[in-house]
Amino acid sequence: MSGEFVIRGARVLDPATGLDGELDVRVTGGRISEVGPGLSGVRELDAAGLHLFPGFVDVHAHWRTPGREDEETIESGSAAAAAGGFTSVVMMPNTEPVIDSPALVSGLLRRVERESRVRAYVAAALHEGLRGERLTEMQLLREAGAFAVSDDGLGTASAGVLRNGMLYARSAGLPVILHCEDHTLATGAVHDGAVAALAGVPGSPASAEDVATATALVLAAETGARVHITHVSTALSAALVGWFKDRNPNITGDTTPHHLTLTDELVGTLDGMYRVNPPLRPEEDRLLVGEALADGTLDFVATDHAPHAPEEKELPLQEASPGFLGHETAFAALYTELVLEGRLPLARLVQAMSCAPGRWIGEQGRIEPGAPADLVLVDLSEEWEVRPGELLSRSRNTPYLGRRLTGRITGTFVGGEMVHDRMGAKLGL
Amino acid sequence: MSNRHLLSLENVSREELRSVLELAREVAAGSFERPLSGKTVFLAFFEPSTRTAASFELAARRAGADVISISTRGSSLEKGESLVDTVVTLDRLGADVLVVRHGAAGAAALAARHTGAAVINAGDGRGQHPTQALLDLYALSAALGGFGGLAGRKAAIIGDILHSRVARSVIPAFRAAGMEVALVAPPTLLPQEPVWEAAVLESVDAALEWGAEVLYTLRLQRERMAGALIPSVQEYAARYGVQRRHLLPGVRVMHPGPVNRGVEIAGDVVLDEASLIPDQVAAGIHVRAAVLMQALGVGLEVAA
């Protein structure tokens, strides 16, 4: 439906296919039809000076629909995603009600069809109501269109319950996305480190994540389930993921932009804005998790985009709801803090935001003839300030508020349609 | 301009301490006639407190202020109205000072961001309890021959440091006054990481060997007395309780109250002459009046 056009003169970078150079990309009928120098067409988009990557893929987002549409809707969440260069997003099931039945999955997918600017996939609950007791009807959930199962937000059930969940998810052909948190250890609101101790904020030790991660990985190896460990935030959990991945190709892991760029120093502000789960960690963890992302121990980045109403954040730190916005700042935060600091090559960042998660969810994350025209144009030279009024999310809880970042998304294409446009492209699409 | 919040003593200076304690002494000496006349002080207590509330109320009334107490049970969320909404309401009612007690660290700082009134932290979660530490220093300096007499003294902070807002104010305040501080607590009641770079000692006996002249004991909350943090009151009292045999010449015993007799301090020691506990309570009124005056910029020329 979007006809044909050529994106001209961008610096095309796609580690999946090895493309790296000033090239033109022809899009026909929503797919990439040709990549090369000197292409021309009836409709052309001059992208000289910009970078063109495969669209970013976010396997962890909360669009709060149904139930908390005051915080985010499919429309606003997908607009925020598009503004951040994301072309595919996985929605987590901890909504009100929890997405734990086939009818809820198909209903949500119908709304996505109408309301989302980007591709959106549904992760359904692993257990009914996320309660860690009764398995969901995973065969039927998959037939209804669920893409994965997860008890995200509630942490891991007991090992015995989780093991059965993995066995069953494997038979249903669904990957399991795991938020690893041991509730007997995670009794606090922030990382239990020196900053929390001095400030007097109840902390949860790093072992709350590490113990649950170890349990999940052992069970994943034993059951053979396809298991993805999300938002890895400690050096030890990253190392554990690495050890098990080397022996089991079904295991993957991600970390978040905020765990790669922020530390528990922010606990000292006592500001409810900075509560997130897993909590921000000390600098040493931040650096080592960054190394794990750089060397591929952790496969990719996911944002854990978690909108919250002001009254859930304008509270003492330990009473605030955990979570940050993520879509709109992810690339710029990582480009500014990791790439420009020389700690992560740009190609690896593109691989971690596009190619690797794209391959994990399907055929996305590649620029080659036949692939969906899911693309992002980026101006790596633009500096911008994160301002509340300019966010497309319905919520404002970004930890980067007021920060100056470098690298801005100028255009996002999903299936050849321009779903975000800061360049006045006038493609007439 | 004249409004000065008192939220934390984490970075307090020796000079700031000296100045507020000097003002408190002037208050005690009767140098001021209703210095807060015409001012409105709200006591906003989001967590139950009788002693601190009474002390603040008495201090404010004696200083001539209009005092209004607002107390709520449970967290602000349970009540329905948020802390910020309550603070804005009190602000519009014309508060000059908000004295805030709350169950969460940072509550007083949050309040201060939403009002033009001066905010005094009367205890926030495990965070800070600055007026407690100030009145402790007042009582201690009175016993040791003045503020200058504090320098070089050794104080052992004993008990549940992990959960204590008093410890988080007392430790930096004692240090700013020139004192040396050691910590005495079981590992389950101490922060996991060394936060204050202080010696950690294993018992009151060890504290005395170290040379402690001040045994500052912290309250052990009832729900922590037996179970996963400490095995029993008996075992706790044996190592961390102050007994009569610990009252070496010159040793002073302190406690922020209320005392669990026979737990933190043996029953026959609580009101011994080595105990500064009654002095601490009495100091509270003068110190809190001084804090209210400083917050409103009243009487500063005297201390300067």
TrEMBL record, chain A:
InterPro entries: DHOase, DHOase/Allantoinase_Hydrolase, DHOase_cat, Dihydroorotase_CS, Metal-dep_hydrolase_composite, Metal_Hydrolase. GO terms for biological process: 'de novo' UMP biosynthetic process; purine nucleobase catabolic process. Zn(2+) 1 binds at H60, H62, D152, D304. Its cofactor is Zn(2+). Keywords: Hydrolase, Metal-binding, Pyrimidine biosynthesis, Zinc. Residues 52-234 form the Dihydroorotase catalytic domain. It holds the Pfam family DHOase. It is an enzyme of class 3 (hydrolase). It catalyses: (S)-dihydroorotate + H2O = N-carbamoyl-L-aspartate + H(+). Its EC number is 3.5.2.3. The active site is at D304. Pathway: Pyrimidine metabolism; UMP biosynthesis via de novo pathway; (S)-dihydroorotate from bicarbonate: step 3/3. Binds 2 Zn(2+) ions per subunit. One of its GO terms (molecular function) is dihydroorotase activity. Zn(2+) 2 binds at D152, H179, H231. One of its GO terms (cellular component) is cytoplasm. Substrate binds at H62, W63, R64, N94, N277, H308, P322, G323. CDD domains: DHOase_IIa (cd01317). Catalyzes the reversible cyclization of carbamoyl aspartate to dihydroorotate. HAMAP family: PyrC_classI_B. Belongs to the metallo-dependent hydrolases superfamily. DHOase family. Class I DHOase subfamily. This is Dihydroorotase. The lineage of its organism: Bacteria, Bacillati, Actinomycetota, Rubrobacteria, Rubrobacterales.
UniProtKB/TrEMBL annotation, chain B:
GO terms for biological process: 'de novo' pyrimidine nucleobase biosynthetic process; 'de novo' UMP biosynthetic process; amino acid metabolic process. Residues 4-140 form the Aspartate/ornithine carbamoyltransferase carbamoyl-P binding domain. Transmembrane segments: none annotated. One of its GO terms (molecular function) is aspartate carbamoyltransferase activity. It comes from the Bacteria. This is Aspartate carbamoyltransferase. Gene3D superfamilies: Aspartate/ornithine carbamoyltransferase. InterPro entries: Asp/Orn_carbamoyltranf_P-bd (IPR006132), Asp/Orn_carbamoylTrfase (IPR006130), Asp/Orn_carbamoylTrfase_sf (IPR036901), Asp_carbamoyltransf (IPR002082), Asp_carbamoyltransf_Asp/Orn-bd (IPR006131). Pfam families: OTCace, OTCace_N. Pathway: Pyrimidine metabolism; UMP biosynthesis via de novo pathway; (S)-dihydroorotate from bicarbonate: step 2/3. It comes from Rubrobacter taiwanensis. Heterododecamer (2C3:3R2) of six catalytic PyrB chains organized as two trimers (C3), and six regulatory PyrI chains organized as three dimers (R2). Keywords: Pyrimidine biosynthesis, Transferase. Carbamoyl phosphate binds at R51, T52, R101, H129, Q132, G257, P258. It is an enzyme of class 2 (transferase). Belongs to the aspartate/ornithine carbamoyltransferase superfamily. ATCase family. One of its GO terms (cellular component) is cytosol. The gene is pyrB.
